[in-house]
Design brief:
With 451 residues, the protein is an alpha/beta fold. It folds into 3 domains: 235 residues, Metallo-dependent phosphatases (Purple Acid Phosphatase, chain A, domain 2); 56 residues; 100 residues, no CATH class. It has 9 helices and 15 strands. The C terminus is likely disordered.
Length: 451
């Protein structure tokens, strides 16, 4: 029997709402997982990617992560992991650094056997490169086998990866796929294999309303659940509370009613989201946010969903704002790649939290497709074919769930590879555009300084 904790999408280093307290929360959640691993005496902690929120984590986040991993190592519990899209860099990965320090094992196409289970890894691979993957894994002689992977797999939400293809084309008959990238926990059976997401360990957006946690996975011929070989149990984490307040204002009601509804909740050290609907009087969001903060909230955000009619005449026409935007873009003579970026910023289907990831993905796909950098040359607006509001080549998939004013994934930064597609899926190479001048990194530490 082998018992492992399956976790992922810890997004260490994420300063959600620009709050240093929230930043610490993400590291604390990862530490809580390790605490449970040590206290429960599991055989391994399996991390399915996006350990970090950014490919250039700050020194404080690196040191905090190393400290947590050392505690796990001191307890004799291996940390097995793959690389997610948020943290992926060109060449060596942060996970490689931890492996050199003896604190982690990067999973790939060779089996890593823990107990009676062989673990394999599949790093995040951009959609544009998946057709070239051959899913070739080395053989093993363990009783069970599990594939740890990072991506949006079917049949779960926002899926863009065919799970059945992975399983049927693989050289190995997997008993389970332990996944990361989708922040919503879920489990399904595909081609006689259990496929599961543990969800994120902290709320990376206001859409992640249910509690956070991880999976305890047991590989055992006498397992109580599944196919009598794999049992997946959900374990909860005690994370910072999020309070969601919905206020429907009737005619004549305004800010006092909103405050009354907010006061009904325990706001102590919570992240508070207030949503206003109805037909009532205008409300000043900043005033409500200040009130919630005075009531003890760590962070407060107010969204007024109502359409408010302006008094008097306004000398502005909104007949077709897209036309106005296109006219201005034509005057700017943007390159084709720049127009892709502009679309990503305005595209309705891309949550604010995922704009950064989508922009990176589009630029890197252009680099892959256009080798000669022609797409980055300025062009006259009249030479551009297509509507500025349409995407002609971009991958608009999100990292997991839609997100609010946060910067993540739930899949907030896909990093395509500038090199040829890998022959094996176990260790697909990742790439990023050339690093900026060191002076422009705003104090962030480069992994090359450590390796």
């Amino acid at each position: 029997m082998t018992r492992v904790i399956h976790t992922g999408d810890t997004h260490i280093g994420y300063s959600q709402y620009h709050s240093p307290v929230r930043r610490q929360d993400f590291l604390d959640a990862f530490e809580a997982v390790v605490d449970d691993a040590v206290d429960g005496g599991v055989d391994a902690v399996v991390h399915a990617g996006d350990l970090f929120h950014d490919r250039r984590p700050d020194l404080q986040d690196l040191m905090g992560t190393i400290s947590v991993l050392r505690r796990l190592n001191d307890a004799g519990i291996p940390f097995l992991a793959v690389v997610g899209n948020h943290e992926s860099t060109r060449g060596g990965q942060w996970l490689d650094l931890f492996e050199r320090l003896g604190l982690a094992t990067r999973l790939g196409d060779e089996p890593v056997v823990v107990g009676d289970t062989a673990f394999y890894g599949l790093d995040h691979v951009p959609v544009s490169r998946r057709d070239d993957l051959d899913y070739a894994f080395a053989d093993h002689d363990a009783d069970y086998a599990a594939l740890v992977a990072h991506g949006l797999f079917e049949p779960f939400g926002y899926a863009d990866w065919d799970t059945e293809t992975v399983l049927t084309e693989s050289d190995i008959a997997f008993d389970a796929m332990l996944l990361g990238d989708n922040h919503t926990p879920d489990t399904a059976e595909v081609a006689d294999t259990w496929v599961t997401y543990p969800g994120s360990t902290e709320r990376a957006s206001a859409s992640e309303r249910e509690g956070r946690g991880y999976n305890l996975v047991v590989f055992d011929a006498d397992a109580a659940g599944g196919d009598d070989r794999v049992e997946i149990r959900r374990r909860a984490l005690d994370t910072r509370p999020f309070v969601f307040v919905s206020v429907e204002l009737r005619e004549g009601e305004g800010e006092p009613r909103v405050r009354e509804r907010v006061r009904e909740h325990d706001l102590a050290e919570a992240v508070v989201h207030v949503e206003i609907t109805g037909e009532g009087d205008p409300v000043t969001p900043a005033a409500v946010e200040e009130f919630a903060s005075d009531e003890g909230a760590l962070v407060a955000r107010v969204t007024d969903r109502r359409e408010v009619d302006a008094d008097g005449e306004v000398d502005v026409s909104f007949a077709d704002p897209e036309d106005a935007v296109r006219d201005r873009l034509d005057e700017m003579a943007l390159s084709t790649a720049a127009r892709d970026v502009e679309r990503a910023v305005r595209e309705d289907g891309v949550p604010d939290a995922n704009v950064r990831e989508t922009v990176k993905r589009r630029i890197e796909e252009r680099l892959d497709e256009d080798g000669d950098l022609g797409a980055f040359e300025a062009v006259d607006g009249s030479d551009v074919v297509g509507d500025a509001g349409e995407s002609d080549d971009a991958d608009g998939a999100t990292d997991g769930e839609p997100e609010d004013d946060s910067e993540p994934d739930n899949g907030e930064e896909s990093d395509d590879d500038e090199s040829d597609p890998p022959e094996s899926t176990a260790e697909p190479e990742s790439a990023e555009p050339d690093d900026p001048d060191p002076a422009s990194t705003d104090g962030q530490v480069s992994m090359e300084d450590y390796l």
